[in-house]
Amino acid sequence: MLAGLSASCQFTPAISAIGHWFLKRRALATGIACTAGGIGGIIFPLVILYLGPKIGYGWAVRIVGFICAGAGFVACCLLRKRLPHNKKAGASIDLKALGDPSYALTTVAVWLVEFAVFIPYTYISLYAIHQGVDPQNAYRMSALLNAGAIPGRALPGYVADRFGYFNVMCATSLTCAAFIFALWLPTGTNEAAITAFAVIFGFWSGATISLTPVCIGQVCKTEDYGKRSGTTFSVASFAALVGIPIAGAIIQANGGGYTGLIIFAGGAYMAAFLAFLVTRIVAGGRDWRVIF
Questions:
Q1: H-helix or E-strand containing 46?
Q2: Neighbours of 101 (CB within 10 A)
Q3: 40 closest CA partner among 135, 118, 147
Q4: What is the pLDDT of residue 91?
Q5: Cα dihedral sign for 117, 119, 120, 121?
Q6: Model confidence at 222: pLDDT above 80
Q7: Is residue 90 part of a domain?
Q8: Residue 86's pLDDT is what?
Q9: Which of 60, 221, 225, 239 would be 114's cystine partner, CB 3.0–4.6 Å?
């Protein structure tokens, strides 16, 4: 609980501050900043995996904490916002903003993609173990997935600045669904296929982290960016809260098998794609030549 609370208090203001400074290159700037999450996703599992047996799990976790403390201190020293504090807006979640159809649909789309993305992130290593992969290699899948996410968070931002945030989110969501059905579902005991899926999905799912904030910024004023981001991610947090347990319940209902979970994850991504598609049409119009 404390980890989730502290991570949210760091992520949302930091991403919102980037939106204060960038407009034309907002997606690229946000994507570059979000690559740090992929780097941490490589380092932290490897610290636990390799240092844990040598110095103990407790000290391995402490090392992770020291790294987070150092990075957080530097971030607090460097982070600046451009716009003055909006006293009128206050600090509460702005649920009234959901009365704006474009913003409300964007929030629904973000909720669905947050619901979908963390299922493969959470269960890929357990799936590999279930299929007979050596546990150490299986736990390494998480690091490989995050390695793919590093360029996957920056490059879609570069593309989105030129072809539209919602356009790219539609493409990446549909691609993630396709890879779940076409690559993850038939992998079976093939360790090479599981590894390939982890890296490829990591790349294409990176846009979920880096582009959802700028999609929110596309349907609100810059001075409202922080509060609207906070509101959307507060609502979307329930997606991550319920998505992973539901996926676990599906595994249990299938006697430990993962076929149902994979179909569920792919279906969730298809729902996210449709939500972003509808939002793009409502907020940006039907002309796909328009950058939106």
A1: helix 26-46
A2: 12
A3: 147
A4: 54
A5: positive
A6: no
A7: no
A8: 61
A9: 239
For residue 185, pLDDT over 70 is answered with: yes
User: In whole angstroms, what is the distance from residue 253 CA to residue 41 CA?
Assistant: 30
**Listed residue (212, 232, 231, 222) closest to 86, CA to CA:** 222
User: Do 269 and 260 touch, CB atoms closer than 8 A?
Assistant: no
The answer to whether residue 292 is domain-embedded is no
Domain that holds residue 251: 2-83+96-284
Q: What is the pTM of this model?
A: 0.84
The secondary element (H helix, E strand) that includes residue 187 is none
User: Which tokens go with 25?
Assistant: 């290159």
Q: In terms of Cα–Cα distance, which of 166, 211, 288, 277 is closest to 26?
A: 211
**Total Cβ atoms within 10 A of residue 155:** 17
In-domain check, residue 46: yes
CA distance 256 to 180: 19
Handedness of CA 219, 221, 224, 229 (dihedral sign): positive
- Rounded Cα–Cα distance for residues 248 and 189 (Å): 20
Domain containing residue 167: CATH number: 1.20.1250.20
Q: To the nearest whole number, what is the mean pLDDT of the chain?
A: 85
